[in-house]
Amino acid sequence: MQAFGSGAMTNSIRGIRDADCILITGSNTAEAHPVIGYEVIRATKKGAHLIIIDPRRVPLVDHATLFLQPQPGTDIYVFLAMMHTIVKEGWADQVFIEERTEGFEDLAKVLDTYTPERAALISGVPSEQIVEAARLYALGVRSKGDSVYDDERGHSTILYAMGITQRSNGTDNVISLANLSMLCGQIGKPSTGVNPLRGQSNVQGACDVGCLVNVLPGYQRVNLDEPRRSVAKFWGLEDLPDKPGLTIVEATHAALEGDVRAMYIMGENPMMSDPNTQHVERSLRSLDFLVVQEIFPSDTAFLAHVILPAASSLEKEGTFTNTERRIQRLHAVLPAPGEAWPDWRITAEIASRFDQERETNREPGYWHFDSVADIFDELALVTPIYRGMNYARLEGQGLQWPCPEEDHPGTPILHVGRFSRGRGKFNPIEARDPAEQPDEEYPLILTTGRVLYHYHTGTMTRRSEPLHWREPHGFVEINPNDAEAIDLEDGFAVAIHSRRGQVRTRARITERVPPGTVFLAFHWREAPANVLTQDHTLDPVAKIPEYKVCAVRLENPRQNKK
Hints:
- The chain is an alpha/beta fold.
- It has 3 domains: about 15-195, Dimethylsulfoxide Reductase, domain 2 (3-Layer(aba) Sandwich), CATH 3.40.228; about 205-400, Rossmann fold (3-Layer(aba) Sandwich), CATH 3.40.50; about 445-560, Barwin-like endoglucanases.
- Helices cover about 30% and strands about 15% of the residues.
- The chain has 19 helices and 21 strands.
- The chain has helices at about 30, 35-45, 75-90, 95-100, 105-110, 115-125, 125-140, 160-165, 170-185, 205-210, 225-235, 250-255, 270-275, 275-285, 345-360, 370-380, 465-470, 480-485, 555-560; strands spanning about 20-25, 50-55, 65-70, 100, 155-160, 195, 215, 220, 260-265, 290-295, 305-310, 320, 325-330, 400, 425, 445-450, 475-480, 495, 500-510, 515-520, 550-555.
- The strands form 6 sheets. A 6-stranded mixed barrel has the order 16-20-17-19-18-21. Strands 3-2-1-5-6 form a 5-stranded parallel sheet.
- A hairpin with a 4-residue loop joins β12 (about 320) and β13.
- α6 crosses α7.
- The protein starts with 20 loop residues before the first strand and ends with a helix.
């Protein structure tokens, strides 16, 4: 958003297969986004170079030209050193920089000290690998075959996910990737861009329609008078709040301090997905009133005063907006069981009863929508990026926003010719280290993520017999050197301790993680990873906690018995 004027995926999934070079960082794409992962494999089979920057050896490394393995939390030094090299070697796209961007001189001054040699000392990535990654990405070099494009410079794309955003410097990481793409002119064209891979199927859609604490539908900031009052007028109100609300972690802190007294949690399981689980539990138990709206009982629902049974995605009509900004129709194929209702109907019914109690100036029946089509068509009226859409137009392949006019075909590629904000802005970034560092008591780094067979907090996938059969138990990946240090054998129990708590699970001894690093997926309620993670240091802009870097120690229970 700061660099381009829009924070969404800039290009389409289909374009990945035609890229000349693909840079993936902070994403286990093959397991967390397997459909996109296969597009990456298609590209490599056609001759694309693949660069992976990740502390863990993820499956797509088997297809990679270069695998840069930084120590957890040090990847920003690699990004900055790549840009240093690109400027020094003359690989930057000077025409693009001059015609379409601003702030390059400020960035260049900062980059001067971030040499590959310095990055190598801090990150552990050899300097020659950093230089080669810079060359391949900047110039869009292919490994074999001809490009489908005629440009003198090849087409390089960046894919990233929560491995770089769920950090106390997550915003800096993303801005660095935006700087890298503009530095090389690798944006605003097919098979290029900066492409966040969303963690759930409708995260993009939820953000689009205002489920963020600082914006209204369509990313209209609440502190801007004109768009806020325009939306308020349409909704029959004089005005709307002009101050951003609290993010999830901020809200749980406020609950424990007595500043938040009630919560309404829909389709979310913070008792497993939020950091420092013991703190989350104390916060939720301190509330006067907790409502949970869910399709299955979750760990969070067990604490609720009221549970509202919701229909699942197969049991309702509506829309999903996927990671490439494509809005698609959703059709019910099963009836909802028992007393379950679609989420929109539950919310509308509650809101309608509020209006009845409060004698508002709105027309009677304001919340009584006849269908999801009515809701979407209203959404299009208050959301500029959806303005040219209606529910009927979404049938079939759907549409990619922005779609400003009724005859507009949608927008597969953002920032063609000009950025959403006009000129792209280079933001000079200095590297910052993770908030929590290893020490003598906690000498290892824990990083968290997902495995192929389960999803998020396991509320759905761990109820699936085939998936449970394939991956029934939690496990922690440990490098053989670290396992040997505590006389730990593969498959045996191990305890993981952090400054917040401890969990016990099975050891999976593997070279996928380097010495000094352990990996634990957060699907396992019997070994919840977020008991260990910290919530005291948030990214100053996005307010996201540092899930991916946490100091821990391992303990062998069998060793203690001896």
